[in-house]
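Reopening this ticket.

The earlier resolution said the output was attached, but the attachment link was broken on my side. Pasting everything inline this time so it's all in one place.
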Amino acid sequence: MSDISQALHTDFYQLTMAAAYFRQNMNRPATFSLFTHGLPAQRGYILAAGLADALDYLEGFCYTPAEIEYLGSLQRFTPEFLEFLAGLRFSGEVWALPEGTACFAGEPLIEVTAPLIEAQLVETRLIQILNVHSTLASKAARCVQAAQGRTCVDFGLRRTQGRDAGWAAARSSAMAGFAGTSNVEASCRLGTTPVGTMAHAFVEAFGDELAAFRAFADSFPHGTVLLVDTYDSVEGLHRAVTVAGELAQRGCQLIGVRLDSGDLVGMSRQARQILDQAGLEQTRVVVSGSLDEYRIDELVRAGAMVDMFGIGTKMACSADAPYLDLAYKLVNYDGRPTLKLSTGKETWASAKQLWRQVDQQGMVQGDVLGLRDEEQAGRPLLEPVMEQGRRLAPEPGWRAASERFAGQLASLPETCRRLNDPIPLEPTPSPELRQVQEKARQAALGSC
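Inline output:
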């Protein structure tokens, strides 16, 4: 099928519910809140990310003629409903946490208010976008933390689950503090320079490591980073030194050497020693190969002499926690606060605001969850970002989000930031929210 939008990128039950709402003439304003029920193990916070892509989706939401034709071929929907979908655009408003905000379970990432059918139909894609971006941003942030000031770059594209995930890994890791990505398409969109060296296949293709190194240096004399562990890492390092000398005669320098296997602690130290003895103090030692925050922390604590970490699969797929338990729940319909009362999954009714409270040193003490229109001490975090289906301001970009996160991370309690056994904060509901909740609970139970 040609001419495909993102509107069909949804679960079928969104369409069947929408059709039932349409038949019952139920399309009054509804507010949905998107949040995570709980944090994955070993997460003391999550990093809100993906809002830019989510707003792009909402602004472009529509059904193409080909999609309407397909839905009609299912013989499940009335012509009147299909005609309604053909003219549908997202016309609602969105409040959201700015990208780069550190947040916790139970706190809204976004809240959507729109005619019920519109708000329902966008659920699946919104969850998907915010899930992958926030999951990967949170993982990348932990890698940056573990690196303790050493450079991190994203090498994970080939192992991500598709193009969208590769983009999410690149953008979200940049937001979290990564210095670059191997993803060329993402670098183009982010306005950065792609990073990368060579594969072992490059060396193998020449059959002569020194010849391979010389060929690469000849092609890229101002950006030479050599992968030295295809055969023997020590010999590879000495050959890299040879090429560095040849580059120096041309007024260039060897940027770095990369180790991708073996004893990374011992070999990084040996690499640093060999390079320094050759007068190559500025040449950087890059390591890669199954790295995540735990392995990086282990290498740093063991005294590895590393300048840059190339982080791939385990970050780009968030291997230990590949998803967030996100939910998108109706909290108000036609002026009536609504809630879910399922055991262990009760939701907070009504449109909300979140206030962050800090001490005199600027350290986070906790968050208060309350009603959208009430006043509380602290800084309100949720901001209006869309009205009548259009952004209220230009997209601030990932660099602004990165700066926001860097400031927020420093203000989080150490118990939230630590890599092992962190203790997340929990938002405190305001008295006003509790009152609305109790009334909504009694009304729901009374209707049973």
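Reporter confirms the inline version is readable. The mean pLDDT is 96. The first strand starts at residue 29 and ends at 36.
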